[in-house]
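Need tokens for this chain, all 320 residues.
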Amino acid sequence: MLVRQSTATDGTLLRSLRIAALTEAPPAFGARLDDMLALPRSHFDAAAARHATSDEATSFLALDQADPVGTIGAFFEAESGRAFICALWVAPAYRGAGVAALLLAATRRWLAARSARSIWAWVADSNARAIAFYLKHGFSRNGDSQALPSNPDQFEHLYYSKLTQPQMPLAIDVDPLTSPAIISFLEDHIADMHKVSPPESTHALDLAGLRHPDITCWSGWLDGDLVGCTAIRRLDDDHAELKSMRTSPRHRQRGIATGLLQHALAHARQAGYRRISLETGSMAFFEPARALYLRHGFTPCDPFADYQLDPNSVFMTRAL
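Here are the structure tokens for all 320 residues:
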């Protein structure tokens, strides 16, 4: 998943995302679909050009490969130090994968670089999902309300958050598996697997197994903290296996797993593999992992390599 600031040539993308948002969730925004459709394409081209260079307004896009799947807008009042975010939307198929958190984090960094002191957002009372998202990410309702511009019969409230130091982007590096931090992290991973799976169905590799020359491991770091890891094992010249996907419990639902998975898939393609497969658990504990893999193109398959049919295992694969 790539999150980036919009460029001067992104007018068409901005328009398609805005129309998709208003089509899918018309009560959630202050604009109306009919009004948006009536705007000339030059309006969006001008907005894209402005957002690419302005220090007062911008937008960020979330892209899966070349497909736009999310957006957020922001504008900054330099005199007051207040910033407003608006039009945050993620395509339904990508919700729950941390995309909205990545968009918000990118916007926070952009605003912090311009010395914004607080972030504000109008949120429709009917948009329970957005309210939960903002509360989770440190926003509070300040009591101000107004009629929703697109529907005067509904109301929206103002939410705000103080702007702290920007969060550093996720850094992903090949890991030699020698530091105390990664050793402890992987020991916790093994312990978690043994808690939910019987010994004969636990396929997580220990340190010795992960240090095999056919395996490449990566660790993910955020603000100096180890927050996740993943690995790829070579099965043959065309086929690789995804191993040891883990996110720190206190950093889940923030897009860490998505970033690690995207990094592993990109490496697999660059290495010339044509297919990548994985084994995960069938229990409820592993449901978020299975959902993540489905969103990234994996489908159920038969056991591969040395695996055997097991009611506690789910096997998945995808072409590269």
